[in-house]
Specification:
The structure holds two protein chains of two kinds. Helices cover 44% and strands 16% of the residues of chain A. Chain A contains four helices and five strands, in the order ββαβαβαβα. Chain A has helices at residues 23-40, 57-72, 84-93, 106-122; strands at residues 6-9, 12-16, 44-48, 76-80, 101-103. In chain A, β3, α2 (57-72) and β4 form a beta-alpha-beta unit. The longest helix of chain A has 18 residues, at 23-40. Chain B has four helices and five strands, in the order βααββααββ. Chain B has helices at residues 18-34, 39-58, 92-95, 109-116, and strands at 6-15, 63-72, 75-84, 119-125, 129-137. The mean pLDDT of chain B is 92. Classes of the chains: A alpha/beta, B alpha+beta. The A-B interface holds A 20-25, 53-58, 60-61, 83-86, 88-89, 92-95 and B 18-19, 21-22, 25-26, 29, 39-40, 42-44, 46-47, 50-51, 54, 98, 105-106, 108-109, 111-113, 115-116.
């Protein structure tokens, strides 16, 4: 497989990384996500790494870069499903995943994105609501 | 200084592409499982192997990795040795500093990998190449 699939659910993009990531596939994912955020006007990006057996400095940097790219494109990123052994290793390796928000699982990540999207919508003019009303937060 | 250990099994992998880095990762995981490292120790070893294999590819211009199950008395472990014939590391102390990088990386590869393993040795000669050897032991 040469690409990691990106699914659109409401105004959230869902990426579930199910392969042992080669570096060039990680780089392609960064670019694909940037394109897709703009093409779909997505407000959130959810990255599920529960299948990843390791996160090394390259993959860690990819996650930070994706979070930065989406922030610039007015979307929030949440990384979910990190295995405990991966978290322990990541910290010891010296990676802090600066700027990356995390949640334990997809449900909580979706709730986190829904909450922050709502807050931002409330700050907009009333007549600028719209498409986002069709997306309901998952009950929690 | 080489450790007086018994080699139980091993594999050699050439490292010339991204896909080879993934293969070294997978070999490290398989051998870590058969050496019965704990899950956290497996993860640390595989992560270190991934960093060092990428260094071999990116900075060493390619090379090879030998991954072995080793035994020292009652303890088993996994040893991974990465060899390249690249430019070598002119200032090893600097290269082992967190955050220092000669390339576009984060500067955590060598220093980070060292923290993840029990034994870590580097020998390098400018113009000749670099060999990095790591071992993770069962507890």
């Amino acid at each position: 497989m040469d690409r990691v699939p990106i699914l659109k659910i409401g105004d959230i993009l869902l990426v579930s990384i199910q392969v042992d990531l080669q570096d060039h596939i990680a780089l392609a994912l960064q670019e694909d996500l940037g394109d897709k955020i703009v093409a779909t006007s997505a407000r959130g990006v959810l990255i599920d790494i529960s299948a990843l057996e390791i996160v090394d400095s390259f993959i860690g940097r990819m996650l930070s870069t994706i979070a930065s790219i989406s922030r610039v494109l007015d979307a929030e990123t949440v990384v979910v499903g990190m295995r405990p052994a991966v978290a322990i290793t990541l910290v010891e390796l010296g990676l802090s995943l600066g700027g990356v928000r995390t949640a334990l699982d997809v449900d909580r990540g979706m709730a986190m994105l829904a909450a922050s999207t709502e807050v931002r919508d409330d700050e907009l003019e009333p007549d600028e609501h719209g498409a986002s009303d069709t997306v309901s937060a998952p009950g929690d | 200084m080489p450790t007086p250990v018994v080699v139980e099994s091993g594999e050699i992998h050439e490292i010339h592409t991204d896909a080879d880095v993934v293969r070294v990762r997978q070999a490290a995981r398989t051998l870590a499982l058969s050496a019965k490292l704990s899950l956290v120790d497996q993860t640390k070893l595989v992560t270190a192997a991934s960093e060092l294999a990428r260094n071999t590819l990116v900075y060493g211009g390619g090379g090879r990795a030998t991954v072995e199950v080793v035994r020292l008395g009652p303890r088993r472990g996994v040893r991974a040795v990465f060899v390249d014939e690249g430019p070598g590391i002119p200032d090893l102390d600097l290269a082992l500093t967190d955050g220092w990088t000669s390339g576009s990386g984060m500067g955590l590869g060598l220093s980070g990998a060292r923290r993840l393993v029990d034994e870590f040795e580097v020998s390098t000669d400018v113009g000749t190449g670099t060999t990095v050897s790591v071992v993770k032991w069962t507890r």
